[in-house]
Amino acid sequence: MIGLPATDTLNATLGLHTIEDYAPLIGSEAVERILKKGQRLRGRRVVHINSTFYGGGVAEILTPMTLLMNTMGIETGWRAIQGTGQFFSCTKKFHNALQGVEVEISEAEKAVYEQVVWENALRLHLDHHDAVFVHDPQPLPLVTRLKRGTAPWIWQCHIDLSQPSRPTWDYLRRFVEEYDICVFSLPGYAQQLRTRQHFIPPAINPFSVKNRELSEDEIHACLAYYGIPTDRPIVVQISRFDRWKDPGGVIEAVRLARKQVDCTLVLLGNTAVDDPEAGVILETIHSAADEHIIVVSVEDPLLVNALQRHAAIVLQKSIREGFGLTVTEAMWKGAAVIGGTAAGIKRQIKHGENGFLVDNIEQTAELIVKLLRAPDLRRRIGTAGRESVRRNFLLSRLTEDYLDLLDSQIGSQIGAATR
Q: Which domain holds residue 357?
């Protein structure tokens, strides 16, 4: 049998980015430190489980991180569970409830939820892994059917849990407390749990199509391809079509600002397969559009990149936000960002230093007017934003956090695995 080439050779052959590629951004000393931590875990088997390979922040994180871990010799897999329309309608209710909406979830809906997850459990075959990460509520009950042996099970919740609806949280908590560790994005999301809690903010891949450097020619060619005019300053919000992102409030704020300044609003988003509400939200946005409001529903990371680099202002007027990677992406590109006062966005933006925070439509409109009239201010804010991402929110830091967590759980175990 012909064997695979050595890991380093395979990485070069496939053109995969490695941790060494981060040296110009974080320094060679940091790279060496991360490599040493990775060496301790070389050959270990880790798997991540979520509900979709495309759309949303979890997929944005797992896509590059699983590849980077594999380039370091840590066998890192990624599985996505399958679900029915009823299942995803129920889990969307969970999502909304965990972010503070009081919703009623029937016993029949809970039965569908548990049944679908248990059906997925039969297909996953997770034997011989050293650690299992389960992301968000959709696959949460897997632990009750598949956890065995000494391998740690880790539940990572990417949702804003600062004010969860108690009835829903009480129902889900019985599954959560079956896990060995819970990982939340911010300390402010901590809950009263028997399970140990850990806090890891998300991060971005600076080398992805969505975040890599683009020339002016590439930017303008991409915008022209989608028919996005550049004759006026562009204000953009990029996010999945979700009421928590407040697209209606964005439209109102830009219309109010346009009474004083000229601009075009571009709303770019996608509809993830695990979000049944997205289509309704998209229809509502389309009905509110006019000649100065352009709505684009495509999955094109190059367009995201081009818009964030060209836009005069990037908005993320979220009401709730577990973290807000679109904020991170825009700041990395030196954009002037206006974000809602959601907890995840406040973790990134220091008002007036590297971006701005707003909690109503009027404030948003005032800042749009102010920034469109002050290009020097936009550049200063953008420069500070990029530096804060370089220091805090690149994938290299996220990978190191995961390595530290894994090492604390399995680094000292010799050959420990689920049997």
A: 216-392
Handedness of CA 392, 396, 402, 408 (dihedral sign): negative
211-262 pLDDT tens trace: 999 999 999 999 999 999 999 999 999 988 888 899 999 999 999 999 999 9
Residue among 139, 142, 192 at smallest CA distance from 169: 192
- DSSP string for 324-391: -HHHHHHHHTT--EEEES-HHHHTT--BTTTBEEESSHHHHHHHHHHHHT-HHHHHHHHHHHHHHHHH
The low-confidence residues of the chain, meaning pLDDT below 50, are 1-5, 9-10, 13, 414-419
Asked whether 306 and 294 are in contact (CB, 8 A), the reply is: no
* Residue 30: closest CA among 340, 363, 395, 417: 395
The pLDDT value recorded for residue 15 is 64
Q: Are residues 270 and 128 in the same domain?
A: no
Q: How far is CA 125 from CA 82, 122, 145, 149, 409, in A?
A: 15, 7, 11, 14, 22
Tell me the pLDDT tens digit for each residue of 32-41: 999 999 999 9
Residue with tokens 């798997």: 47
Same domain, 76 and 61: yes
Backbone phi, then psi, for 78, in 5-degree steps?
-145, 120
Residues 281 and 294 in one domain: yes
* Encoded tokens for 91: 């889990």
Ramachandran category for residue 230: left, alpha or beta (phi over 0 → left; psi -120 to 50 → alpha) = alpha
- Identify the DSSP state of 3: P
